[in-house]
């Protein structure tokens, strides 16, 4: 093994490999930071180039793009309140308030450091735990998946802001919107036009909901101070701030690795999950959503942690979990490599080269992130009156470029109006979006489980994984109800004493 | 009209006033190009096309399913190979997914029939209209350029299963009173029809004799069987071969006219006497919008003729577990027979009246 490792190290440590990786990560960071352009797009666009590169170089390029774009999403989330990728949706909650308070640089540094640590931990796990994690992932069938999604949906309680009721309403609307289009059995719901048959795209909904309402607000209300740029205050991340978040970073990375290894879950769910966990357990939990660095740390460490881990089912089982790893599977096949158990027997050299190459990605991510974030921080000095129209143009072009579909742009604009209405009614956007993302997984796995058991609910309680998530869900819901009840009682008591 | 004519004349006048040195240079270049072309023609045996002939710019090949899947790989393999025969004009693969592949198909039929937007079609383009009468695109709303490959499907169980043969599986299905489960993309997808055709051949009710569990995409289907969440499935060979080779799955039967080279011991559905299942199978084709000009059709007939014997194409097809069938059948007759086959099954299974 050591001989092979040494050999792999020699073969991977070449200038073209490092160049491909650095270019991939940097390109990924920039693409991820532009709202409307996603990692999926970056990887798909890069695929034809990989036909002409050696296998290891091309795979490193694709992996690097994926990692870069997952981090890049946090830059726009923090600076312009628009998650560049869905997995940065929770980063907005604390990142944007920090940027408004003149601490954008601090937030960006926290996001970068947690992303790099998450990335590093997931690379290490890929190296040492690929097989056990893949075997665990295979045991997650539809009932376990459903229970996991049920638990993930309880995050709504953590991100609802001031009113839980409004948060639940938002989540219900999100779940409802997720049902548009073809269901898993091939019947159509709310298919008012031919385009709606394939459902609403996640990116247009995401961008419409987060980016456009700010712009509409400015047009409608014409605030006086709109030419004022954001302050740039202290940008350095102090050691004590980092120390305060280290627990959340480690926990987030582990959550990311475990959830990322399960095919079909992906970085977004991991980030939501980790954010919710951090909020529940942190002593600063109540401040989450008002600009708490720990929230950024939890969300960003988990999404990058999941990123490397999505390679686990791909390499160990030959099962890609999402679109990006699907494209990578194609890249493997084009080079005559078949991912799966046989890859470790037949192409051990390539596997080790890939692993060792990926270990360097954390370092590259740090450098590329530092360079890019530094440049992007200047965005916050642009007056809002100039910045927001530019964002709108970027969004429209970005969304159109995904599938050259005017329908996606319509969805973007309509969701912008919906988002504005929600803003006026104080309905939070984050629970809506998260329910919209989790909804299909929640519904599909419930229906799959019930198909397998032919309607018997017992199917949800047949393994310890399902039981585990079931108990967690019940516990979390009970705690939330108790908290709300206490709040309500206190408010009533103070109202009575006032009268 | 008049203006355009004048413009053309004045521009040709400009070329007439070019200096003699330029002319010499131009002739030299022309000569060099001629020599290069001759070398190219003799080494690769391609006839060089006229400068103004199709194609003049990049060609878009729409793949109606997701990146990384069997159809995507077929499309990218075609794009890579055919590029050498399209006067070096690149072929750009675009994935337009959704609605069982009909989104991409509809997009292509709405484009100008100029040969610059083509569709990598799959059996779904014949199957969908055969099952849904309100299909956005009919099975014959295209110009058929060719059928590219046939992709066998495999009936498989998890290697830990006690089922060793098709007969074992049938006995298990009959005993279970509908409780056995199989994974498929949907009841009316090709991998749902593969199982339902087999059940129908056995005089079982294709819709209730075994329970369908829907998953999205070949790898999710394979993972469901790998994790033991369903009892069996019958899906495209490309998604299953790695797992069969790794000894994690057991192949029982092949849906293909001939036995697969990689699985010489596994019988075909036809050999086992299953009339309907014996006709089910996947394939890829190349379609264009209706009304494609004759010269473009002729060009593609020539290109596909070259692709058919191209080492790279055959090699990539073998890696996917497919057999190249370019030129074996008349495409429109083949697609018509496929439409009728699945239309008949859809009626028999009760999807349409």
From TrEMBL, chain A:
The keyword Membrane applies. The keyword Transmembrane helix applies. The chain crosses the membrane at residues 12-34, 46-66, 111-138, 145-178, 198-221, 314-334, 354-373, 385-403, 409-438, 459-481. Keywords: Membrane, Transmembrane, Transmembrane helix. Residues 19-433 form the DUF112 domain. This is C4-dicarboxylate ABC transporter permease.
């Amino acid at each position: 093994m050591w001989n092979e490792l040494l050999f792999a190290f020699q073969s991977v440590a070449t200038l073209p490999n490092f160049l491909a990786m650095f270019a991939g990560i940097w390109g990924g960071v920039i693409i991820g930071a532009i709202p409307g352009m996603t990692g999926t797009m970056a990887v798909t666009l890069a695929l034809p180039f990989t036909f002409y590169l050696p296998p290891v170089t091309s795979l490193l390029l694709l992996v690097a793009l994926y990692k870069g774009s997952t981090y890049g999403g946090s830059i726009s989330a923090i600076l312009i309140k628009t998650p560049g990728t869905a997995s940065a949706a929770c980063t907005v909650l604390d990142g944007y308030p920090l940027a408004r308070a003149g601490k954008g640089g601090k937030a960006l540094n926290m996001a970068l450091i947690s992303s790099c640590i998450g990335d590093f931990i997931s690379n290490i796990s890929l190296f040492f735990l690929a097989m056990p994690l893949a075997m665990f992932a295979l045991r997650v069938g539809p009932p376990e998946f459903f229970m996991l999604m049920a638990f993930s949906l309880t995050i709504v309680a953590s991100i609802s802001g001031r009113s839980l009721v409004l948060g639940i309403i938002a989540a219900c609307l999100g779940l409802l919107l997720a049902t548009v289009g073809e269901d898993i059995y091939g019947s159509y719901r709310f298919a008012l036009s031919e385009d709606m048959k394939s459902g609403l795209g996640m990116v247009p909904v995401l961008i419409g909901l987060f980016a456009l309402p700010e712009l509409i607000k400015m047009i409608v209300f014409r605030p006086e101070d709109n030419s004022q740029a954001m302050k740039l205050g202290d940008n350095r991340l102090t050691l004590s701030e980092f120390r305060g978040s280290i627990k959340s970073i480690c926990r987030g990375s582990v959550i990311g690795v475990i959830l990322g290894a399960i095919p079909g879950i992906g970085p977004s769910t991991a980030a939501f999950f980790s954010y919710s966990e951090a909020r529940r357990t942190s002593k600063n939990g109540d401040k989450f959503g008002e600009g708490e660095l720990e929230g950024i740390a939890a969300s960003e460490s988990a999404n990058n942690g999941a990123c490397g881990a999505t390679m686990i089912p791909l390499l160990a089982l030959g099962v890609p979990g999402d679109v990006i790893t699907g494209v990578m599977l194609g890249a493997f096949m084009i080079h005559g490599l078949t991912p799966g158990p046989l890859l470790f027997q037949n192409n051990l050299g390539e596997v080790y080269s890939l692993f060792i190459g990926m270990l360097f990605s954390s370092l590259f991510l740090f450098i590329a992130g530092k360079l890019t974030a530094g440049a992007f921080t200047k965005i916050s000095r642009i007056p809002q009156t100039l910045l927001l129209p530019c964002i709108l143009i970027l969004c429209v072009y970005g969304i159109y470029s995904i599938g050259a579909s005017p329908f996606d742009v319509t969805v973007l604009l309509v969701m912008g109006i919906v988002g504005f209405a929600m803003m006026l009614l104080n309905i939070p956007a984050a629970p809506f979006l998260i329910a919209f993302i989790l909804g299909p997984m929640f519904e599909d796995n419930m229906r799959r489980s019930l198909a397998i058991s032919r309607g018997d609910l017992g199917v949800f309680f047949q393994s310890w994984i399902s039981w585990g998530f079931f108990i967690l869900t019940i516990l979390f819901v009970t705690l939330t109800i108790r908290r709300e009840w206490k709040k309500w009682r206190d408010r009533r008591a103070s109202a009575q004493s006032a009268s | 009209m008049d203006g355009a004519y004048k413009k053309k004349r004045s521009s040709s006048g400009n070329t007439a006033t070019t200096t003699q040195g330029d002319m010499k240079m131009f002739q030299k270049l022309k000569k060099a190009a001629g020599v290069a072309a001759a070398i190219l023609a003799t080494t690769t045996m391609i006839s060089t096309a006229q400068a103004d002939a199709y194609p003049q710019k990049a060609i878009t090949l729409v793949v109606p399913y997701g990146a990384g899947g069997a159809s995507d790989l077929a499309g990218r393999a075609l794009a890579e190979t055919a590029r050498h025969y399209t006067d070096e004009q690149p072929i750009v693969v675009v994935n337009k997914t959704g609605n069982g592949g009909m989104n991409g198909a509809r997009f292509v039929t709405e484009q100008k029939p100029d040969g610059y937007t083509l569709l990598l079609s799959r059996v779904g383009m014949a199957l969908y209209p055969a099952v849904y009468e309100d299909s956005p695109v009919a099975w014959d709303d295209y110009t058929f350029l060719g059928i590219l490959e046939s992709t066998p499907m495999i009936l498989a169980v998890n290697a830990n299963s006690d089922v060793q043969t098709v007969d074992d599986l049938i006995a298990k299905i009959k005993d279970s009173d509908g409780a056995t489960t199989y994974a498929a993309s949907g009841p009316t997808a090709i991998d749902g029809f593969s199982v339902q055709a087999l059940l129908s051949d056995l005089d079982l009710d294709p819709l209730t004799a075994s329970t369908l569990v829907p998953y999205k995409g070949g790898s999710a289907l394979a993972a469901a069987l790998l994790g033991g969440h369903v009892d069996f499935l019958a899906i495209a060979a490309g998604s299953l071969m790695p797992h069969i080779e790794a000894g994690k799955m057991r192949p029982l039967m092949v849906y293909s006219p001939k036995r697969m080279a990689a699985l010489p011991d596994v019988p075909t559905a036809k050999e086992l006497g299953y009339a309907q299942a014996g006709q089910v199978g996947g394939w890829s084709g190349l379609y264009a919008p209706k009304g494609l000009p004759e010269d473009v059709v002729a060009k593609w007939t020539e290109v596909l003729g070259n692709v058919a014997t191209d080492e790279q194409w055959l090699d990539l097809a073998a890696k996917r577990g497919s057999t190249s069938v370019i030129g074996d059948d008349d495409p429109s007759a083949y697609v018509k027979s496929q439409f009728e086959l699945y239309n008949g099954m859809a009626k028999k299974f009760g999807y349409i009246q």
